[in-house]
Design goal:
Blueprint (H helix, E strand, L loop, with lengths): L8 E6 L14 H16 L3 E6 L7 H6 L4 H25 L4 E5 L8 E2 L2 H9 L3 E5 L9 H12 L3 E6 L4 E2 L11 E2 L1 E2 L1 H6 L7 H10 L3 E5 L5 H6 L6 E3 L1
Parallel strand pairs: 1-2, 1-6, 2-5, 3-4, 3-5, 6-10, 9-11
Antiparallel strand pairs: 7-8, 10-11
Helix pairs in contact: 1-3, 5-7
């Protein structure tokens, strides 16, 4: 693709687990730095970026609720975990001379700006990378749904969904070695076959607003940059 990006504005969706490396919890500084270097390359090529990061490397509200915790309380704790990850990205990106802002759906003015759509659009037009923290600010909604909602709100052309596998398969390829890889799949197929791409609410939002989703292996060197520049990597949901 060279230095000519296909998309002017994108949303990158990463799971919190993508930051853990060989550990089960926390943030691996080498992985964080590698992801930020690729984002810097994409950003410097002129692509406007909104980043949504999960919090599963620190806390999962749904899992906690299955253990007896109140679901709303657990989800609020999960939102705070996404803010921790977002601040880690901001710190690393700023050390790479990337101008960025953390915008939180839950008010915490001492550490992040409140998410206001018009302000987010202003940051993007000024060349700043925005990190969209705390999900939608509501319990029972995942950060996948937050990524889809923010993509619609800011007019992103595509969502880049980084995963541990090479794209969308008929089953979990880490468990079923006979799982079939899908280079292309429709929104309806994702819903009807219950393929593990993003949750149903986020798929429906993308379908209604015609936002494609590229699902790819975030851990393969250079994949994030290639996807960010518009190269076909992994699976395209459209």
């Amino acid at each position: 693709m060279g230095d000519n990006p296909l998309y002017k504005r994108i949303v990158i969706k990463l799971s919190g687990e993508s930051l853990t490396g060989r550990g089960k919890f926390g943030i691996d500084s080498d992985i964080l730095a590698g992801l930020c270097r690729q984002m810097r390359q994409i950003h410097h090529a002129g692509v406007e970026i909104g980043l949504v990061i999960g919090g599963g490397n620190i806390f999962r509200g749904f899992t906690a609720s299955q253990g007896g915790m109140d679901r709303v309380t657990g989800d609020h704790m999960g939102m705070l975990a996404t803010v921790i990850n977002s601040l880690a990205f901001q710190d690393t990106l700023e050390k790479l001379d990337v101008d960025c802002r953390v915008m939180s759906a839950v008010r915490m003015d001492d550490v992040a700006e409140p998410y206001i759509r018009r302000r987010a659009m202003h940051h993007l037009k000024k060349g700043r990378l925005i990190i969209l923290a705390a999900g939608t600010g509501n319990p029972y909604f995942t950060t996948d749904t937050a990524a889809a909602l923010r993509a619609v709100e800011i007019g992103a052309r595509i969502i880049l969904k980084g995963t541990r596998v090479d794209g969308v398969f008929s089953a979990d390829p880490e468990v079923d070695k006979k799982a079939v890889f899908y280079p292309d799949v429709s929104y309806i197929e994702v819903l009807s076959k219950e393929l593990k791409v993003m949750d149903a609410a986020s798929i429906a939002l993308c379908k209604d607003n015609k936002i494609p989703i590229m699902v790819f292996n975030i851990h393969k060197e250079g994949n994030l940059y290639r996807a960010g520049m518009g190269e076909r990597v992994g699976t395209l949901v459209h």
